[in-house]
Inverse folding.
């Protein structure tokens, strides 16, 4: 795609013509064009809905552009819409001149030079088209669509600088100084400059040479133009394929209305242009690059695609009926990852994450996030990644990434230099592309610390600030984060403190609303149930009937999620707010007491962010039932979830002040002496081997382990890779 935002003038013949598809001198063509223009004028003037004239009024309110619904045009003049659809480049200029004439006649008349009242001269009016049709796939666009109207959806990944595009170029002949004005084709098309001057030389006058024209830039007419790169939505890309890009050309009032990362539905004319680096493929004269000349654009961010009209009245009725059931919350949680056994609280947390709280804009311009972030930390083989994969499939917008394979620029945004123009432009990363949805980050603990710091701002302020290569901008990343991580030693170790097990900085931990410690508990009865569940899942995997039912349920859940997020924005009731306030103060008091008893701060901080987390959870629980008020019942469930998740994580592991009997303390002291003797300062030994050696000397294994934990807390011994113990004198 080199040269995609090149600002050159292209001398290429294109399928669409400036002269409305006919020769200017053809009287039949002029007559038919005049008739069509009259019909367009009638449509703008006379189309009425519920006793109002929307287009006439909109034109007066905003004389620069007019947004026209295709369905309205089809209803008023059924013969016009097929023409506009099949050859938009011919009929759009007629529509725009009709709109300009109607605007001139609607304005109050002014006194002319002769003293008589005349219509005001209206400026250009840009016609923007929109329709309720479903967008087509980018991959299905081909030669049959050239010069036709198409509608596609995708994510903007790059936007060029604004350039001035000539609509009329003024030329002057070098020889006879005669001036001439020629029109430029819209979009990325250039002007066709005549080879010879049409001046007839007088007797004795030198004739004009071939190619005599010079362009006079100051006297030409210009409009603003910008090029965008549109990429397929991640959910539309077939498995194993790379997402496709398509070039968009926007002009006049659509310029600088879009930032990278925005989800768009675009209506435009599928056109072709000659790439600027055509020198590299001189043989391929007839090969042209496709692009879309945009004539209508809708921002579909924040799951607003189509708005409320996207749901049928039957669907809305069904959703309201479901929300009114007393066990709606339980039913939703049962639909979350049904192939995973147990983990009920994690499923409830994932449900809250999918529904999300309410985003708030304060009067002073501060924005409070409504998205919920969840961290799953624990043993391998506890279905953490399966939860992430389920959320990726179910959330309306989702991006899945792995910690080790993600860089800071890949998660936030990168500045890329275009190969042909040497100009820098922005490309959004995973957090920007998932704006209004969920980012799933697996192997969160394997990320490099400097990359993890890059998502701090995105997780709390929900923006990404860029100041690179002369580009200073702020991108939106209103996303929830669902992360999965393992403890540093691979498994969760109950003999270690919470700090050692949760090897993440408190700055990132405080940004997670819920932190779950997922342990693989060895219990005979539970193991038997899990084994039977897993075998059943494997045995019934090929049953097509149940598969259809599952996909139907998933689709229903997706639609319900979309509806709740669009329609419902709950707030706390007064009694719920009081209950929450009292509970938060009590939690802080308990944590302070624990810190005083153990002599060390908690690994998971309990701050005001955690109070906001409980507010968001309460709102998400209310949203599940389509309730506009979060009640005490919702707050109690949110506090329960917070207690079994984050509070348990904060209290997990053993603490330094272990209640020891004098005999035990003596045995531990002896074990410490033996460990120091056995290792020697600066040497290292495998933990397993050390325990075996001391056990042969008659020492209890649990006493040796406890002694090692205490020495590790005093920084006398250090654990290296593969559980090797190094003794360094404190």
């Amino acid at each position: 795609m080199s040269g995609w935002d090149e600002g050159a003038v292209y001398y290429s013949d294109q399928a669409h013509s400036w002269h409305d598809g006919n020769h200017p001198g053809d009287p039949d063509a002029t007559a038919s064009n005049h008739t069509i223009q009259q019909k367009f004028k009638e449509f703008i003037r006379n189309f009425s809905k519920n006793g109002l004239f929307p287009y006439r009024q909109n034109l007066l309110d905003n004389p620069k552009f007019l947004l026209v619904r295709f369905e309205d045009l089809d209803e008023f003049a059924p013969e016009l819409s097929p023409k506009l659809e099949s050859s938009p480049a011919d009929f759009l200029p007629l529509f725009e001149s009709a709109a300009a004439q109607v605007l001139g006649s609607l304005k109050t008349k002014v006194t002319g030079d002769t003293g008589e009242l005349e219509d005001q001269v209206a400026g250009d009016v840009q016609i923007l088209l929109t329709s309720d049709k479903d967008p087509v796939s980018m991959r299905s666009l081909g030669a049959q669509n050239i010069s036709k109207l198409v509608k596609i959806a995708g994510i903007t990944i790059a936007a060029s600088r604004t350039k001035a595009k000539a609509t009329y170029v003024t030329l002057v002949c070098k020889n006879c100084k005669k001036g001439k004005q020629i029109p430029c084709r819209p979009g990325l098309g250039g002007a066709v400059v005549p080879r010879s001057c049409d001046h007839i030389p007088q007797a004795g006058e030198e004739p004009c040479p071939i190619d005599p024209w010079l362009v006079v830039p100051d006297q030409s007419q210009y409009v603003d133009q910008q090029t965008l790169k549109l990429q397929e939505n991640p959910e539309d890309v077939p498995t194993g394929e790379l997402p496709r890009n398509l070039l968009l050309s926007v002009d006049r009032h659509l310029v600088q209305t879009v930032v990278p990362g925005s989800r768009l539905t675009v209506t435009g004319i599928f056109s072709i242009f000659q790439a600027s680096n055509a020198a590299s493929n001189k043989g391929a004269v007839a090969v042209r690059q496709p692009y879309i000349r945009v004539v209508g654009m809708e921002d579909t961010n924040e799951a607003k695609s189509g708005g409320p009209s996207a749901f049928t009245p039957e669907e809305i009725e069904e959703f309201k009926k479901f929300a009114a059931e007393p066990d709606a919350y339980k039913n939703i949680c049962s639909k979350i990852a049904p192939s995973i056994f147990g983990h009920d609280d994690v499923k409830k947390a994932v449900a809250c994450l999918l529904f999300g709280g309410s985003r708030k804009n304060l009067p002073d311009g501060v924005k409070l996030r409504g998205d919920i972030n969840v961290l799953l930390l624990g043993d391998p083989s506890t279905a953490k990644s399966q939860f992430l994969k389920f959320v990726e499939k179910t959330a309306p917008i989702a991006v899945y990434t792995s910690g080790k394979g993600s860089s800071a620029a890949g998660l936030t945004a990168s500045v890329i230099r275009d190969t042909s123009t040497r100009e820098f432009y922005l490309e959004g990363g995973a957090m920007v592309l998932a704006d209004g949805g969920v980012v799933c980050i697996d192997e969160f603990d394997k990320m490099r610390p400097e990359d993890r710091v890059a998502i701090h701002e995105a997780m709390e302020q929900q923006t990404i600030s860029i100041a690179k290569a002369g580009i200073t901008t702020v991108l939106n990343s209103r996303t929830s984060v669902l992360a999965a991580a393992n403890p540093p030693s691979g498994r969760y170790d109950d003999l270690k403190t919470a700090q050692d097990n949760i090897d993440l900085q408190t700055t990132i931990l405080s940004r997670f609303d819920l932190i779950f410690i997922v342990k693989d508990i060895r219990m005979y009865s539970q193991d038997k149930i899990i084994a039977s569940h897993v075998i059943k899942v494997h045995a019934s995997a090929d049953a097509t009937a149940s598969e259809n039912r599952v996909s139907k349920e998933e689709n229903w859940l997706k639609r319900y999620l979309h509806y709740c997020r669009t329609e419902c924005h709950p707030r706390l009731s007064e009694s719920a707010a009081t209950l929450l306030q009292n509970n938060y103060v009590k939690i802080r008091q308990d944590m302070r007491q624990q810190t005083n008893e153990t002599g060390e701060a908690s690994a998971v901080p309990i701050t005001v962010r955690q109070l906001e987390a409980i507010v968001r959870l309460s709102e998400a629980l209310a949203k599940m039932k389509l309730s506009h008020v979060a009640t005490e019942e919702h707050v109690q469930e949110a506090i329960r979830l917070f207690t079994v998740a984050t509070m348990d994580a904060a209290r997990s592991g053993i603490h330094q002040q272990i209640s020891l009997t004098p005999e035990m303390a003596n045995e531990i002291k002896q074990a410490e002496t033996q460990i120091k003797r056995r290792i020697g300062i600066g040497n290292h030994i495998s933990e397993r081997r050390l325990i075996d050696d001391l056990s042969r000397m008659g020492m209890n294994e649990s006493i040796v382990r406890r002694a090692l934990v205490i020495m590790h807390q005093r920084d006398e011994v250090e654990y290296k890779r593969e559980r090797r113990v190094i003794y360094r004198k404190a």
Remarks:
- Residues 574-598 form the longest helix (25 residues).
